[in-house]
Input
Amino acid sequence: MDRSEIMVEFDSHGILPTSQRLEIAEILFEKQQHLSADQIIDRLRAQGSAVSKATVYNTLNLFIENGLVQECIVDPERRVYDSNTQAHHHYYNLDTGELTDIPRDRIKIKELPDLPGDRQIEDVQVMIRVRSTIA
Output
């Protein structure tokens, strides 16, 4: 997504296009990818940006709230931000930390348990944890 496309997305979601938000968005939306906040901060620093860590986290939360990215909680200590907002699942490589998309139609869920009380399903996401095989 280029800067003009990002501006259109911001406008359609009522997001004020600050220079910091644009810098963060350009990194996130350069391609479909999974990045941690620290990876985004590292890329910003490599570009000479002085965007604060707090601004990165606040911007990511804003993007999540507006459906521009999905937050993937890989484990209790690791979160990544997914620029692919289409419904899909993931492989998580425990050895490399890499997250790989699985198209939604590649996994079939036949039946889910009854939900408690007056609950309804909002979403189902499958994360398959894998390790490299030892030869």
